[in-house]
TrEMBL record:
Transmembrane segments: none annotated. Pfam families: GyrI-like. Residues 3-153 form the AraC effector-binding domain. InterPro entries: AraC_E-bd, GyrI-like, Reg_factor_effector_dom_sf. It comes from Corallococcus exercitus. This is GyrI-like domain-containing protein. Residues 134-154 are annotated as: Disordered. Coiled coil: none annotated. Residues 142-154 have a biased composition (Basic and acidic residues).
Length: 154
């Protein structure tokens, strides 16, 4: 179950990211190492995250994930290995917060998408999830919080 979605304005933000295209079945194998690599690169450059990490899904495909594993940073990172600098633009988004284990995110997105349709909102094709709190915060998955975001076109 998601909290009631809301429309909000985001600010522009520098990011450090790794672009990954992977079969759906391999997502779990790349996510942990990917975020560890981004965080290590940020730390090695003397920076600290400017917020929670997130995944930007560039293309929705049932078989393949095309995404960027990202962390916001206060200033641009220097490219290092697979980690590249990015710029997240300011935009108007519709956002819902899901609380629970990551296995429930598919159903949360379905509920969120239904709400968007009911409201008659027009969204871009890409989506992103912000992992506000997760396993690093608590061993209890019932307390984990994930923001589901869709950029608005109107």
């Amino acid at each position: 179950m998601i909290e009631t979605p809301r429309i909000t304005q985001t600010d522009a933000q520098h990011t450090a990211l790794i672009h990954v295209t992977v079969p759906r079945s391999q997502l779990r194998q790349v996510m942990g190492p990917g975020i560890s690599e981004v965080m290590a690169t940020v730390a090695a450059q003397g920076l600290k995250p400017a917020g929670p990490w997130f995944v930007h899904h560039l293309r929705i495909d049932p078989e393949v994930f095309d995404l960027e594993i990202s962390v916001p940073v206060p200033s641009p990172v220097k490219a290092a290995g697979r980690v590249k600098p990015g710029q997240w633009p300011a935009m108007k988004v519709v956002r819902a917060v899901y609380q629970g284990p990551y296995e429930g995110l598919g159903a949360a997105w379905g509920e969120f998408e239904a709400w968007i349709r009911e409201q008659g909102l027009h969204t871009a094709q890409d989506v992103w999830e912000v992992y506000v709190s997760g396993p690093e915060s608590s061993p209890d998955p019932k307390t984990w919080r994930t923001e589901c975001n869709r950029p608005l076109l109107d």
